[in-house]
Amino acid sequence: MDAKIILMADNQSDFLEERREFLENAGYTVVTTNNPADTRNVLMRGGVDLAILDLRLIDDDDQEDTSGLELAREFGQNLPIIILTGYPTWEAVKASLKKSLNGLSPVVDFLSKDEGPDVMVQAVDMTINHPHLKRNILQEFQVEATQDLYDEMKRKDLGDTTDKFQKSLDQTESELQHHRAEISRQAANHQKTARWMGMIGMGVLVVGAVFVYYNLISVAILSGIAGVIFEAVSVLFFGRADRASQKVDQIFGELQEFYKESQLILMCDTIETKSKREEAKLLIIQRLTGKRIG
Amino acid sequence: MDKKKVLIVCDAENLPYWDTLSKAVIKKIGSIDKELYKNITPQIIAKKYDLIILDISIIENLYSMISTLHQNEPSCRIIVVSSVPTWKFTREVLRLGAADMIHKGSDPDKILQEL
Q: A32, A114, A137, A198: which has the fewest C-beta neighbours closer than 10 Å?
């Protein structure tokens, strides 16, 4: 699968390069810009899967500078955008995440730089890689906004609504299964690499001890340093394996939720009275839609 | 402006504020019901409101209220009012499904405009 492309825009070059590395280590291809004009050009050209925009793209000291948010308003309907800022305020959060009349907000998430790179990568993962029931439901009902979805559900025959909703659940469940298998494979690979690095590191340290025995101190020191480096890399990969395993657990939890929700709808078929059966199904679908979509 | 059915859910200490504001401002929006958070029941939640205003001091209660309301009536507009909104609090409230967050210290006409 081709790596997803992230556009990252920030007027601080050092910060940009530091965070670029975290995203690239997470498997993304990163394009960077440091001013609104270049950012707009990249967004207009297309080909980007997600954009992370600084709030104050022109001047960090200017409280009135919301150039990043202005770009999000312009392009946020076409691709997911995350605002990442060193100056979070409740007004900026409100302007970014408040939904407009079509049920969509300019950005999908709002982060502070102080929350660290892991939170940023996690937000990107959740937005870009994670199968989305919301997207599948909107696609299945052939609408673009959540408000249109509720109108469409009211218009449609109940049987049709139930079928479409069940299909969306099944589709998302299947995507989640695939996603979980992918992450599990990554976790297994990370563990394998970690074990090999650990074993090599141990081996090199033992060799270093032998050199010490034969009084070859300088070589022993080099061996020791190499051994420590291998062990450090091993710890790094064990950490990655651990994080991947946690993701697998999280996805498993979500799959359980989807399974329960599917069962809830199916159980309605055991209700004898047709009108009560339909009422129960509609109520469940409305509540699940509200819970999952917002 | 079309008349809306409005529910205000607040703590006891905030009730005088909403009594004053509802007489002065919110009546221009529509009919208003006021309930204390501790008295909220599923029957009250089951009523169809166009707009629900939440002014609840304890954050866990507020988050729980937003989730419950949003699940029961996803098309209802939920607005949170806070006297000391922080950016993290605002983010969490909007992520949970509230439509908006208003600062309580604002001018009443501005609050009406926001509503």
A: A114
